[in-house]
Amino acid sequence: MKLLITMAGVNNRFLSISSGVPKYLLPFGSSVILNEVMNNYDKADVFDEISLICNNRDLRFRKIIEYHLNSWNFPKSQLHFVNNTSSQVETAELGITKSNWQDDKSPIIITNIDTIIRNRDFVYTKQILQKYDGYIDGFVANSPEYSYAIFDSDFNLNVIKSKIVISDTACSGLYGFKSPQFLMQQIQENNDLLVSDFSNVYEKMLERKRKILVKRHESFDDTIVLGTPEEYFVAI
Predict the structure, then answer these.
(1) pLDDT of residue 190
(2) Which CATH number is 2-235 given?
């Protein structure tokens, strides 16, 4: 299974507290946000390759990012830098292309760099993505900052909306697809998705009767969102 970390956001809200340091390199616990985010993935033992997609403005931090990347337990790793993107979907599309995964048919997980997740079972996730077209990691929330999902009794996705609280299950920012090749096909068939978010990708998939499973995590301690400086200061 492939793991793509989208880290190309501008993070304007953090500029006043970071002195130009990327948000993912700000202190957290005994290390930095980047390492805290990666802790759960690093121990999963199901990822054969990881790719980090950063913004060109962070090139001067390349050595420290590589230092962290080389300390993790992944058989293969890549680091790429891109210009500003319009969305996480566009960052993912560029990341898949730069990683040369366009034709890869193994499952892929895409996650952002400002949500710390814990106690996820990626063996289970991989098994799901060998049967389903998509996978959404959810947590309990009620803030309009997130995307929200409605699912049936078997956890099949029925409805998903961005920044509209239609349920108490928000998307954590961890998204799964049956393969990079499959995701690229979805984007290529709808170029407007490049300027939207993954909720719109799943909406298009639902229109095509694709099967998407939602996994809801109940513990508030297992999902820590660091999207704003306020959330960051509360978490640390």
Answers:
(1) 83
(2) 3.90.550.10
